[in-house]
Specification:
The complex is a heterodimer of chains A (288) and B (123).
Chain A: H1 2-24, H2 35-49, H3 67-76, H4 83-94, E1 120-122, E2 127-129, H5 131-141, H6 152-163, H7 178-192, H8 202-206, E3 213-214, E4 217-218, E5 231-233, E6 238-240, H9 242-252, H10 263-274, E7 285-287
Parallel strand pairs in A: 5-7
Antiparallel strand pairs in A: 1-2, 3-4, 5-6
Helix pairs in contact in A: 4-6, 7-10
Chain B: H1 2-44, H2 73-76, H3 80-89, H4 110-120
Helix pairs in contact in B: 1-4, 3-4
Classes of the chains: A mainly alpha (288), B mainly alpha (123).
């Protein structure tokens, strides 16, 4: 009898916990797409969950979640592991293509201090354009072969472009175009949809469980996660782009990754960047 | 004489049966021990149960913190079938759970789930 009442009590607590969790999860099941309200609710969820974390610190991933790690990270920043990529990116950026043009010719403001405006919605094309995609298009338009999206040269170029934009606030726009709103909504849907043999969505780890450990690693909050891209990961022993992060996350949950820069990944990056509006660019980052 | 023979022969099968039960029981515990070991291996194996990624488990290094510590399992879940159900598909009980549906998505076989449950019941 005692046991039974204990079970009832436990299940009542569980149900209550599930209900609280459901009601505190951002986004909810909104009937119509309202990105402004979404972003507000999304940011409030994280600031309520981590009242001690300064808003601008959310861009520092796991380091914002743990004081010891934060100190270790500050030490690491003295000799950052992404420095090599940064140097390489800077040099690549100023080296002309065979036709004499440079990357600067493809971007507003010569490509300097513009990371916070990517991805953007291209109304001519009706699609989301990420920085990685724009860089490869720039190369192809100038007769150069495209780079792999996941690491090496692409990570070096985006590292340099992020570095010149450090401190600038993420500023993603959704133009008055139903296709832009649709891309945003599709990205949001992808973010919250469970997939893979392990049945995880992006949100399972990065909304429901930030600050928690999976084995020795601390999960990063989704808020501001894109602001730190690209990142040097000790686990990768090298640099990785947003494309690398998306595809490896999908592999880790035992889902079949999409191709880098697939429309769906571009939409997720659009959604995730939009809800991180107002947070500073901190890339390139370093992660365990 | 006949009586005593009768009773002797009646006693013999009883004795044999007792022996057989004893042998079976021994084999039973040996088998249970091996499934507990097997279950522990599965629980710590990253490509299998990988319970340690989210749960603190006695004897496991670098546990995660997402799920509750796996301790006093027998008093928390006296019914074996409840544990099997949680491992099979916890989303049925809690749609928001982080726990992967090990049975439904065939991450573990039914036999492997049973071995993990044997191990969990020793915690």
């Amino acid at each position: 009898m005692k046991l039974r009442s204990a079970i009832y009590l436990a299940s009542a607590i569980l149900a209550l916990a599930a209900m609280t969790l459901a009601s505190t999860l951002p986004s909810g099941a909104a009937d119509k797409v309202d990105p402004v309200a979404d972003a507000k609710a999304f940011q409030k969820f994280f600031t309520d969950k981590f009242p001690k974390v300064k808003f601008e610190d959310f861009v520092n991933g796991p380091y914002s979640m743990n004081e010891d790690l934060y100190r270790q990270w500050q030490d690491k920043e003295q000799f950052p592991p992404y420095e090599f990529a940064l140097e390489m990116g800077k040099e690549m950026f100023s080296t002309p293509f065979k036709n004499g043009k440079t990357y600067a010719d493809c971007f507003p403001n010569g490509g300097i201090g513009i990371r916070q405006n990517y991805p953007y919605f291209d109304e001519k094309e009706g699609k989301v354009i990420t920085l990685e995609l724009a860089l490869n298009r720039c190369r192809e338009a100038n007769g150069e072969p495209p780079y792999s999206y996941v690491k090496d040269e692409m990570a070096a170029l985006t590292a340099y472009m992020a570095f010149t934009s450090r401190g600038k606030l993420m500023d993603i726009k959704i133009p008055d175009d139903p296709r832009a709103l649709e891309a945003y909504e599709k990205g949001k849907e992808y973010f919250y949809t469970r997939r893979g043999q392990l049945n995880f969505s992006c949100a399972t780890c990065h909304v429901q469980s930030p600050g928690e450990r999976i084995r020795a690693e601390i999960l990063a909050p989704a808020l501001g996660i894109v602001n730190a891209m690209p990142i040097y990961r000790s686990e990768w022993s090298g640099m990785g782009t947003t494309s690398r992060r998306f595809t490896t996350c999908n592999s880790q949950i035992r889902a079949v990754p999409l191709s880098p820069q697939d429309d769906e990944y571009r939409n997720v990056e659009y959604y995730l960047s939009y809800v991180s509006n107002g947070l500073p660019i901190s890339g390139p980052g370093a992660r365990p | 004489m006949i009586d005593s023979f009768k009773s002797k022969s009646a006693r013999f099968p009883a004795f044999a049966l007792a022996l057989a039960i004893g042998a079976f029981a021994c084999a039973g515990t040996a088998q249970a021990q091996s499934t507990v070991d097997e279950g522990r291996k599965l629980a710590f194996d990253r490509s299998k149960g990988n319970c340690l990624t989210c749960h603190v488990i006695k004897g496991g290094d670098l546990p995660g913190t997402i799920g509750p510590e796996l301790v006093d399992i027998k008093s928390k879940y006296p019914k074996r079938e409840d544990l099997v159900a949680i491992l099979h598909d916890e989303t049925l009980r809690n749609p928001l759970t982080v726990m992967p549906p090990f049975g439904r998505n065939r991450i573990l076989t039914e036999k492997e789930i049973n071995a993990v449950v044997d191990f969990l019941q020793t915690l």
